[in-house]
Design a protein that fits this description.
alpha/beta, 12 helices, 8 strands
Length: about 290
């Protein structure tokens, strides 16, 4: 999970619901003042939302890119079915991404953060035609590392037994700070949370479908390595990470990038969420890659 550094949309951005062939999705879209150089679609990670990319919107628009960050099915402000897990299988979420890209006009620079990277990879492997490039950010080649698997299983088990508020309170207690359960799950850096941000993170948690979290959490602990399949897709690729990452170790991310023959960017001072931790440097790296793609 990313902690957005702020929550107010920049003047270049607006919130709306993107209509697609698979339903409507809540998005934040930023547009440059001039004709866009391209369109980017940003897919958030486990327990995340479009707000995780809020600090990228203005610098990417300034660089000339129409940028659309999305809440996936069952995430935050995008509704999802309850009482079933089938709607949140990876293939279904990948088809949602495909529908979003088509609705945006195709030729999209696709970016997935963390779990979003696995979903974006599945979308490209299913049908690469709507995409101009693929960026995997804070995302690795296969299942998350063993300590994070244990934490994620604990969260999934709790969601099967308790309501969302009870899980929130228990994970806060275990984490030992006024923070979010998913930050404990992903071992994000600890630290004080601004009250307004804390309130938002709680609202987002409560608005997310538990079935989505249970299904995608199970995906994180069982994801196969599909790097060789992805390497065969003739699409420009970019792998971005911080200097440290507790979800996928950086050496495994390095090896994936090499196998993909991908452009590789390590964001100084960032960990699992360069999009939120070092947005200016991250936006610059993304725009430079897209300019060449």
């Amino acid at each position: 999970m990313s902690r957005p550094p702020f929550l107010t949309l920049p003047a270049c951005a607006r919130a709306y619901r993107l209509a697609t062939s698979r339903g409507e999705f809540a998005v934040h879209e930023a547009r440059p003042a001039a004709t866009p150089r391209g369109t980017a679609l940003l897919v958030p990670g486990f327990t995340g939302s479009k707000e995780d990319f809020i600090a990228l919107l203005e610098p990417l628009a300034a660089a000339g890119y129409r940028t659309v960050a999305v809440d996936g099915r069952g995430q935050h402000e995008t509704e999802g079915p309850r009482g079933t897990t089938g709607a949140y299988k990876q293939a279904e979420l990948a088809r949602d991404v495909h529908a979003q890209a088509v609705a945006l006009g195709g030729d999209v620079h696709l970016l997935g953060h963390s779990l979003g990277g696995l979903i974006a990879r599945a979308a490209v492997l299913e049908d690469a035609s709507p995409y101009r490039s693929l960026t995997l950010m804070g995302s690795g080649p296969a299942a998350i590392c063993a300590p994070q698997q244990a934490r994620t299983r604990m969260l999934v088990d709790a969601l099967g037994a308790l309501d969302m508020d009870a899980v929130w309170q228990e994970m806060r207690r275990l984490d030992g700070e006024a923070a979010k359960p998913a930050e404990a799950v992903e071992n994000a850096p600890a630290g004080p949370v601004d009250p307004a941000l804390g309130a938002f993170l709680y609202r987002r948690w409560m608005a997310t479908a538990p079935e989505q979290l249970m299904t995608t959490g199970a995906q994180l602990v069982a994801e196969p390595d599909r790097t060789a399949e992805l390497a065969a897709v003739p699409l420009p690729k970019h792998v971005v990470s911080g200097v440290r990452d507790y979800v996928w170790p950086v050496p495994s991310i390095d090896a994936m990038a090499e196998q993909l023959s991908a452009a590789r960017t390590v964001i100084d001072g960032a960990e699992h969420s360069p999009n939120a931790e070092r947005p200016a440097a991250t936006a610059g790296a993304l725009a430079r890659f897209w300019d060449l793609s």
